[in-house]
Amino acid sequence: NAGVMQNPRHLVRRRGQEARLRCSPMKGHSHVYWYRQLPEEGLKFMVYLQKENIIDESGMPKERFSAEFPKEGPSILRIQQVVRGDSAAYFCASSPTTENNSPLHFGNGTRLTVT
Amino acid sequence: AQTVTQSQPEMSVQEAETVTLSCTYDTSESNYYLFWYKQPPSRQMILVIRQEAYKQQNATENRFSVNFQKAAKSFSLKISDSQLGDTAMYFCAFMKLFQGAQKLVFGQGTRLTINP
């Protein structure tokens, strides 16, 4: 059973370009979370999605950032018109349910560098 | 809002020694979960240990154990017989289940180096 798969592993974008980060949850998992890790900091919650629904996006910037988890295919975190401050590692995590005894499984992250 | 504080940015010990990483948190909730995650240079987030707040018994996983002091809002991690492979960033995290979402609040991390 493959773990949470994120790609690309590294992504370099120039200021003003768009970044698209992909996450395939573990098989059987229908709950996806995105977290951001700035350099030398802990992860910070961005958004929580279930299939075709955004449940909680309270941690996501209101502008330029969007997320989706379609019925088919991976979850996508999209950052439009990237700026240097968007440089960070972006982690996806998944769980099968929202039960307390189902811990989150994290992917290896995508490191975004904005030049 | 919940906050998690790790007061030790870096620690270094010799192989086979015991090391304790500190973590304090602030919350008004009575039921919650606490975690320690390990992040090696590969960047993978690995769950080390988990503690339910309603359980008085401290969680243990092989060489890893916690000292959970609920009244003091303290959650330290003890690593016994440390190994070179324990070298990593360690993050303490708090979670309250809110509207079904598992929203983790992380501390800033402690960089642990195990020296041969």
What does this structure look like?
The complex is a heterodimer of chains A (115) and B (116). Chain A is mainly beta and 115 residues long. Chain A has strands at 5-7, 10-13, 19-24, 31-37, 43-50, 53-56, 65-68, 75-79, 88-95, 105-106, 110-114. Chain A has no helices and eleven strands. The radius of gyration of chain A is 13 Å and the shape is globular. Chain B is built from no helices and twelve strands. In chain B, strands 2, 5, 6, 10, 11 and 12 form a six-stranded mixed sheet that branches. A four-stranded antiparallel sheet of chain B has the order 3-9-8-7, with no helix packed on it. In chain B, strands 1-4 form a two-stranded antiparallel ribbon. Classes of the chains: A mainly beta (115), B mainly beta (116). At the A-B interface, β4, β5 and β9 of A face β6, β10 and β11 of B.
Helix count of chain A equals 0
Radius of gyration of chain B: 14 Å
Terminal CA distance of chain A: 36 Å
Largest interface: A-B, 25 and 25 residues
Average pLDDT figure of chain B:
93
| Number of E-type strands of chain A | 11
The portion of residues assigned to helices of chain B is under 10%
Count of alpha/pi helices of chain B: 0
- Helix residue percentage of chain A: under 10%
What's the number of extended β-strand segments of chain B? 12
What would you call the structural class of chain A?
mainly beta
**How would you describe the shape of chain A?**
globular
Residue ranges of chain B: pLDDT <50 for 5 or more in a row?
none
How does the major sheet of chain A shape up? 7 strands, mixed
Shape designation of chain B: globular
Order of helices and strands of chain B: EEEEEEEEEEEE
